[in-house]
Every structure is written in C-alpha cells, then in structure tokens.
Design brief:
The protein has 509 residues and is mostly beta strands. The chain contains 3 helices and 35 strands. The protein has a single domain (14-505), classed as YVTN repeat-like/Quinoprotein amine dehydrogenase (Methylamine Dehydrogenase, Chain H, 7 Propeller), CATH 2.130.10.10. The protein has helices at 14-19, 172-176, 203-206; strands at residues 41-42, 59-64, 74-76, 79-85, 98-105, 111-118, 138-140, 143-147, 152-157, 197-202, 220-222, 225-229, 249-253, 259-262, 280-284, 287-293, 299-302, 315-316, 319-323, 353-355, 358-364, 374-380, 385-386, 392-398, 407-409, 412-416, 421-426, 432-437, 447-449, 452-456, 461-466, 473-478, 488-490, 493-497, 501-505. The chain has a 5-stranded mixed sheet, with no helix packed on it. The chain has a 5-stranded mixed sheet with strand order 11-12-13-14-18, with no helix packed on it. A 5-stranded mixed sheet has the order 15-16-17-19-23. β20 (353-355) and β21 form a beta hairpin. The chain is globular, with a radius of gyration of 21 Å.
C-alpha cells in the first residue's frame, strides 16, 4: 500500500579531524551529526531539562513550520536552516504542495529567505505528497548545500537574495515555478524572500538515478569535495530497479557541482527499497576512509578522492573493504521478499558512526517492506577486503525495525527502535544496560549533550534522560505534534523540531 516518506541528520583539515572527538563549546552545528564521525553528541553546556511552550518558560523563540517536517535543523553563521512543506505558506505566490527549505534568524526565528521547490509530477513515488524537504543542509561559510525534494543537489548563498542574484545559476524562476497541471498563469519571479541558487545538479538527469519517495541526504564535505548518497531506489511497484547502473555514492565539486566520482560496486540491482544512509568519514591507522551503507544492506569503506579527474571524466571510488551486517540474508532476486516479515534482506537508514576505531551501525528489516528484525553492530574499522568474518566486535538485538543513528558517549551507546524503546548499551561489550519504553514510535535519533539524553517521539513527547549507566528520566515534555527530527544543540541553545513548530530552547538565568 502507498506509504509516506518519513525518515529521520564545515570543512576542517584532515589532521584536525583525526584529533577532534567532540565539537567545541558554544559552537555552530553546520551539518547533521558531529563533524565527520556523524556521532549524535554535543559539547554544549547549560542546556535546560525543561521548557514549556504554553508559558514560554525557557523558550527563546518558536517558528511555525508546515504540517510535515522531517528535516533535522542545522545552525551556522547566525542562521538556522530547516526543511518542511508548504501547508502554511510564508509567501502567497507559492501555492499548493511544495518542498520548502527555510533560513531563519538564529536570535529571533524570523524568516530570512526560503527555497520553495515544486513537487515532481511524473510519479508520486518520486516525491511523496506533503513530505516537503526532508534532507538536512550542510553549511560551510556562506555556502549552503542541500539535496532538495526533486533529487537536485543545490548550492545556495547563505544570504539569499539580500546581496543580489549571484551566478552562475540564474534560473531561480524556472526552479520555483511548477509545470504541467499545476503551472501558474505566469512564471514566479524571485523576490527578496527567495533563495539564491549558485549552482544545481539534477541527479536524475546527470547521474542516472531513480528517486523513490523523496531525497533524504546529508552531505559530507572534505576539502573541495561533497560526498552524498544518491537516493536511488525501486520503482512504484517496489519490485523493480529501473536504473541498475545508477550510482549509490557520489562525489561532487563543491565549487561547481560537477560530478567527479562514484562507486561502481554494482549496488543498485540489490537495493531492497532505497539508498537512505549518508556517508561518514574518519582516519583509521593514519588512513582516511569514507564509510557508506548502501541500499543493499552492505557497509563499505572507500578511499576519499585524491584529486579531480579530467574534464568529462567520472572517477571510480576505490573500495578498501566491505562488511555484511546480515550475511545469511537473501542476496539474489531480493524483491521477491517484499512484504515478507519473516525473511528478507536488511536495510540501513541511519548513518555509520565512528568512535575510537570502531563503527556503530544500526539496521535490519526495512520498516515497511522487510522482516521484523533489527540490530546494532559494533565493527572494527581496520582491514581490507571482505572483513565480514573478522571485524564484528559485537551485535545487540533491537526491536523489529530501526531508523536511528547511534549516539556514542563515555562508553555508552544510545539507540532507538520501532517498538518505542530507547536502549542504553555498553559500547565495549554490547551489553544492554537499560531500556525505556516511550509512548510513541521513534524515527529520530537520540542526542547526548550536557549530561543529558534528548529524544523525541512521533507521539509528540520530548523525553530527557540523565546520561549514564543507570536509567533516570528527568522530564517528559508533551509537544502534541510528532517529532521526527533529531534534537540539535548549538551555541548554548537546544533546537527541537516538531512536525509543525521549531522551538529554540535556552535555560533562563
């Protein structure tokens, strides 16, 4: 049956990346997850364990969003970026179902500019109705990188149109004007509240992907290169791969958008549903590696691109190793297991998290189409070739399905599953220390910050725990509207996005 796409995320030099384990106190949060490692941990301090939207207690500001918000907020350069839909338009020129990417003032929550992108009309499975703009942004300096709802990678000016329409891209009017049955009488012309797009790459046309449900990609920046999951997947039957040669992992030039490199591991034919997981990166034994979980349920390590290929060429990323978290699962003709809740391939939604030489990875049966089985794996990140039989440190069972990216701090791993449980697991042994059952499913990930664990549920509850080996629930805040985005901490402020409202929360002195 039809289902909505609802998924749960600055360049620093390689030497700094190897040394940094947590972001600096009172810092921006320019991408989903911590630095290259993608760990859901923050060094922010003085964060509240309570706020009340009704009285305004500890609420710095709140901003109305659309009606469906799945994008984790990103904070950089005095601005807050978040994706939503257009069910509560900020600009009457933009009517109907759209993807909306908002840039808000960090101090007040006021709208500075927005990118409003029409839905794809060829097939609703390319861009599921009402889901808006699910991808989180990645910001570096005055450049904002995003994979929008149409599967286009865009680079935008952080100042929007405030400093004019910078090039080389000048087709903002065509980008924001619907075509086909939803076309307005006249093209929409860019105004002061619209995004200034600097360059755009259409992954469907230029990389040969097949979008499914919608894009959810968090771009990783290394030097002049952007690393991103392509979002290629099955067609509307959920049983056929229309573009079997499509890439799963791509590298683009951050200055121009030119496609520089791709994987050639033959992943696409074995994609069970879609390519959801975004890449991470770390230095292992003095060697930089890109970690990527494909839509075929396999975790890969690639060498990062050393230099751009010649004009007109697309390089092949060199694989260092592969790890199969579910080696006994079906590998051939995988779509015959669609809707089989007992046997199926595994799928991976969360990002691989690197901490102290190990990768922490969640996965299991696809939420809608796969088996009722999920797990958290701890994997030694060293080695070459097929490391499946040698590098598993431990495996911990989770309930039915999971979309979480792990949060690893002080020897503990926090991870959620679809049976409403938050798990606290010993990172060295995989032993479960405690669990807590929330009142709603969790499609977001936990955040560890300031000695606390923050976690939102689709029932609309924000639960706050004490970070530690013994369970202590500090507070449950009922926000009514579902929470699908991961809570973010930046510059002494907590950002909590429900489906309809973004809250900036700060402790009152």
């Amino acid at each position: 049956m039809p289902h909505p796409f609802i998924y749960p995320k600055s360049w620093i030099c390689p030497l700094a990346a190897a040394l940094v384990t947590i972001p600096a106190l009172a810092a921006d949060q320019p991408q989903w997850g911590q630095a290259w490692s993608r760990n859901q941990v923050s060094a922010e301090r003085g964060l509240p364990d309570f706020f009340d939207p009704k009285t305004g207690s500890n609420v710095l500001w709140s901003a109305a969003l659309g009606t469906e918000t799945y994008s984790t907020p990103v904070i950089s350069g005095g601005r807050v970026y978040i994706g939503t839909n257009n069910e509560q338009p900020r600009d009457p020129r933009h009517k109907g179902d759209r993807g909306v990417f908002m840039c808000l003032d960090e101090k007040t929550g006021a709208l500075l500019w927005q990118s409003v992108v029409p839905k794809r009309e060829e097939d609703i499975y390319h861009d599921w109705p009402k889901t808006g703009m699910p991808s989180p942004a990645t910001v570096e300096g005055d450049r904002v990188y995003l994979v929008n709802n149409r599967g286009q990678v865009v680079c935008m000016d952080a100042k929007g149109m405030a400093n004019g329409n910078d090039g080389p891209f000048r087709e903002e009017s065509a980008l924001m004007t619907p075509i086909g049955t939803n076309a307005p009488p006249q093209p929409i012309q860019p105004g002061p509240l619209d995004a200034d797009v600097l360059w755009l790459v259409d992954l469907t046309k230029e990389a040969g992907i097949w979008s499914h449900d919608g894009a959810h990609s968090s771009i990783l920046i290394r030097g002049d290169f952007l690393y991103l999951n392509s979002g290629t997947g099955v067609d509307n039957t959920h049983r056929k791969i229309r573009t079997p040669d499509a890439p799963s992992l791509l590298v683009l030039d951050k200055r121009t958008g030119r496609i520089l490199a791709r994987d050639r591991e033959g992943i696409a034919p074995a994609i069970f549903h879609n390519t959801w997981s975004s890449p991470s990166m770390a230095t292992v034994d003095g060697r930089e590696l890109i970690f990527f979980a494909g839509g075929n349920g396999i975790l890969y390590a690639f060498e990062p691109l050393a230099s751009a290929p010649k004009a007109g060429e697309v390089a092949t990323l060199k694989k260092v190793w592969r790890f199969d978290p579910d080696p006994t699962a079906p590998k051939e003709d995988v779509h015959r297991f669609t809707s089989n809740k007992k046997e199926s391939p595994s799928n991976i939604f969360g990002m691989p998290v690197f901490v102290d030489g190990r990768i922490y990875l969640t996965g299991g049966g696809d939420w809608w189409w796969g088996k009722n089985e999920a797990w958290l794996k701890c994997i030694d990140a060293r080695g070459t070739g097929d490391i499946t039989a040698t590098n598993l440190k431990w495996s911990a069972p989770l309930g039915r399905h999971t979309m979480a990216t792990p949060a690893v701090a002080d020897g503990l791993v926090y991870v959620t599953d679809s049976m409403r449980f938050l798990h606290c697991i010993d990172s060295a042994t995989g032993q479960e220390l405690w669990t807590h059952e929330l009142r709603g499913d969790m499609w977001s990930s936990a955040l560890v910050a300031d000695g606390k664990v923050y976690l939102g549920s689709r029932r609309g509850d924000l639960c706050i725990f004490a970070h530690g080996r013994e369970k202590k629930l500090l507070n449950t805040i009922e926000l009514v509207s579902p929470i699908n985005a991961t809570v973010v901490a930046a510059n002494g402020t907590l950002y909590v996005a429900t489906m309809k409202t973004l809250y900036a929360v700060k402790a009152t002195k």
